[in-house]
Structures are given as structure tokens and as C-alpha cells.
Design brief:
Elements: H1 2-30, H2 35-49, E1 54-58, H3 64-92, H4 99-113, E2 118-122
Antiparallel strand pairs: 1-2
Length: 127
């Protein structure tokens, strides 16, 4: 079932969302000082390509630097990526088939706002 949902996700919005994260990552790498944000953005792009069966969990080793970085991320990139998730979720909630896809978009909103200090793990390994 995860495979089917991931394929539907990819077709109905996932590819565009992943491209948005990738563009944000490229911009962060170009600016050199924001390379840690670029790494987080590419990690989220990979997660946005195939979200079902994976989730983001808080990294217990994350410190104050990731909190400060999340504030900067929110100001410069997080709000428009979160807005993209909300708009896509609303469009997907229109159809019955799109409801699980819309829920996945809603699940990604907090991650798009604060990506630093999180890890992507398979849902089988989360307790």
C-alpha cells in the first residue's frame, strides 16, 4: 500500500514539492554560508519524493545551533515551503483519493518550518 501511495504522491504534487526543496537547497549552497541549510533542504527533498513509510523524528543530539538555524530558516525559506504544503494539501483534499496525500502534506508542514535537528527514519523503526 505504501508503494501505491508513494507513486500517487509523486504524480500528484510530490515531484513539484521535492523540486521546491531542491531549489532552496541549491540557493543555500550558492550562498556558501548557508550550506547546512542546503543539506537539510536536500534531505527534505528526498523525504518529499517518497514520504509514505518514513517520518521525521527529533535528533537528540541537536543543540542550540539548530534552534537558531531553524529561526533563520523560517524567516528566509520555511514559510513559503510550508505555504506550498498547505496549498497542495487543500487541492488534494478535494478528492477522496487525495485525502491520504493531503494528510502527508499536512504532516510535512512542521518539518518544512523547522528542518534542522531532525532525522528521517523508517516508520518501522519508530516506537
Amino acid at each position: 500500500m505504501r508503494f501505491i501511495l508513494n507513486v500517487l504522491w509523486l504524480i500528484f504534487g510530490g515531484l513539484l514539492i521535492a523540486l521546491s526543496y531542491a531549489i532552496a537547497g541549491i540557493i543555500c549552497f550558492i550562498l556558501i554560508i548557508t550550506i547546512p541549510f542546503g543539506i537539510a533542504s536536500f534531505r527534505m527533498a528526498r523525504y518529499a519524493l517518497w514520504p509514505f513509510g518514513r517520518t521525521m523524528v527529533r535528533d537528540p543530539q541537536a543543540g542550540a545551533a539548530s534552534a537558531i538555524g531553524n529561526v533563520l530558516w523560517f524567516i528566509f525559506a520555511g514559510w513559503w515551503l510550508a505555504l506550498e504544503h498547505v496549498i497542495t494539501a487543500i487541492a488534494q483534499f478535494v478528492s477522496i483519493i487525495g485525502i491520504p496525500l493531503g494528510l502527508a502534506n499536512v504532516k510535512m508542514v512542521p518539518v518544512s518550518l523547522m528542518p534542522l535537528g531532525h532525522r528521517i527514519v523508517h516508520t518501522d523503526s519508530v516506537r
